[in-house]
Amino acid sequence: MPAMACCVDPAAANFPPAYAAAAAAVGPGSLTGLLIPPPTSHVEACHWSPTCSSELYKVDGWGAPYFAVNGSGNISVRPHGASTLPHQEIDLLKIVKKVSDPKSSGGLGLQLPLIVRLPDVLKNRLESLQSAFEYAVQSQGYEAHYQGVYPVKCNQDRFVVEDIVKFGSPFRFGLEAGSKPELLLAMSCLCKGNPEALLVCNGFKDAEYISLALVARKLALNTVIVLEQEEELDLVVDLSKRLSVKPIIGVRAKLRTKHSGHFGSTSGEKGKFGLTTTQILRVVKKLEQAGMIDCLQLLHFHIGSQIPSTALLADGVGEAAQIYCELVRLGAQMRVIDIGGGLGIDYDGSKSTDSDISVGYTLGEYAAAVVQAIRFVCDRRSIKHPIICSESGRAIVSHHSVLIFEAVSASVYESPTMTSLGFQYFVDSLSDEAQADYMNLYSAAIRGDSENCLIYADQLKQRYVDQFKEGSLGIEQLAAVDGLCDVISKSIGAPDPVRTYHVNLSVFTSIPDFWGIGQLFPIVPIHRLEQKPSVKGILSDLTCDSDGKIDKFIGGESSLPLHELEGDGGTGTGKYYLGMFLGGAYEEALGGLHNLFGGPSVVRVSQSDGPHSFAVTRAVPGPSCADVLRVMQHEPELMFETLKHRAEECCNGNGNGISALANSLAKSFRNMPYLVANSAASSSCSLTAAAMNNNGFYYCNEEDEYNAAADSATTAGEDEWSYCYA
């Protein structure tokens, strides 16, 4: 006997076959025996473990050596990379707990979403890049050194830039600026850096920009003005004479070598920046005529971000090395070849050479290819080896920042239940055409024909939709046929529908590159990874915009494996935290204010020897509603007074009512725009209010060497936490 017929509810035994089978479908019975389910794979059958989650989310591919899944099923940070000792690993969930718990419980009371900055990771990235080039220089007998700069456009945050200058000082690491405000911050930061560190001035320039760069030269900063346009040279010559400053000049060359990926639009002869060979020759001639040919000392080029392979890299560097040698031949006092950016990040862990989100090389292989290409050309031309400079911003800062946000609810697909008598009424209400579809559906089920089951179920559903639109069908009947079709789909092994997880985040503010250019980042639950995820989901943000969602993920996936939210109906009484990784470059600077959702809260977390291996050395609440309103030229104080006046009018002189409304309005202005859990609302309000009174900053004083004096707070039944706040 076919499986469907075996599932009839006894209460429906006196119905006709079609009634009985359908009653089984949506009533007390089940269609689970309709077809034999597909065999369970070995991976599904095995006991789930954190290791299984690590493989599922490819953590070892994109995260090594800085991120891993620990034995508790949480994402942990290895702040010193491969050199991190087991007791130095930092559990991200513990950071979230420390930061978001109310102050009364020993936490900092900050609201999510949250950016966790990891200066130890930043330091390790700098040191790893430097070590890779030093090894390549020494192993290949290269007769100059590597001296990198950080392009501040990647992340202009004050503490990120200051950390890079401090951590890079032992090896003369400098900064690159592409605008006047970036130049100002670079000048200020490099006053505390190595005096030999380069300050590379890129971007389009006017007289004010060039004057500022010359002032930097007067301030004994090792400043290089890179010509992006031929016309800039006239300004440099004229202003340097007026200010009595001898400039150091570089030229940016347009190479023939072109990066074919998304990020290659700035490369090639038609690129946005740089000079053609004809223009470079005219620059050399003008400098000779001005008696300033000795000022030309640097050649810059940029193949494009995310260079996928060392073959493309070596081709471009080799071409640039030829131009460098030609400039030496023409009399320029060349010293530095600046290979620009392009050192890529493996966002998906695939190690692919044919992808915009992956690269097929290591840091060591990248450095070796650069050094070899330059050495080969210079040796053949008998030219002294130049200092090698790179502007590897993405590779330096991407890993040091983690965006953490919460899934607050999820769409729930539940088939409505129906008694046998209710189902009889349902079938009786079918039109003649719908009755025919239903009988076809039943016959297909008897035959075990799953493909036609779905076809007839869809036809039945569409007829009901048409009748509902005509007004001849009630919403209860429409829901009943939806339930019937859902149960049939599940019973024949059709994939569960992809569910939508609503996250407390704005994609436009915190992950703008996903919306703007389709950039993919690894997104992973930061806890519960000892459990097998049972749901496929996409992420929908808080904005009133259909683009405010994440529905593409690394590995070419259109959904993300997720866990059921704890609590009834997908409302999630328990917390479910997700992390977006490798987003430390560009995302913060590019983020907008769509729907007036401001930026996340930010904490700076360093590895320490405390019981939880970390100390929060700086904490900044995210912008309040008042803050984001000011950005759009509104005046929150005046708005509050207007609303308070309206409250006085509406409350008819009720002093208590006016006071309560005024307090509620004031809290709304002081709170972040994001959702706040009811239990945390009170502490969040008090924190943001205090933050506004302190110009929005919560932090501890950091003395030389960034040795923060960490306080300790002990709460009943909890381990001791190490943290610092003011």
List keywords for this structure.
globular, about 725 residues, alpha/beta, single chain, disordered C terminus
Strand content: 5-15%
Tell me the number of helical segments per DSSP (H or I, 4 or more residues long).
25
Distance between the termini: 74 Å
Anisotropy-based shape: globular
Determine the fraction of residues in helical runs and give it as a percent range: 25-40%
Structural class: alpha/beta
What ranges have pLDDT less than 50 throughout 5 or more consecutive residues? 1-45, 568-573, 680-726
Calculate the mean pLDDT score and round it: 84
Radius of gyration: 32 Å
Number of strands: 24
What is the makeup of the main sheet?
11 strands, mixed
Description:
By secondary structure, the protein is an alpha/beta fold. It is built from 25 helices and 24 strands. Strands 4, 13, 14, 15, 16, 17, 18, 19, 20, 21 and 22 form an eleven-stranded mixed sheet that branches. Strand 20 and strand 21 form a beta hairpin. Helix 1 crosses helix 15, helix 6 (119-139) runs parallel beside helix 13 (363-381) and helix 16 runs antiparallel to helix 17 (450-470). The longest helix is centred in the first third of the chain and has 21 residues, at 119-139. The chain is globular and about 100 Å long.
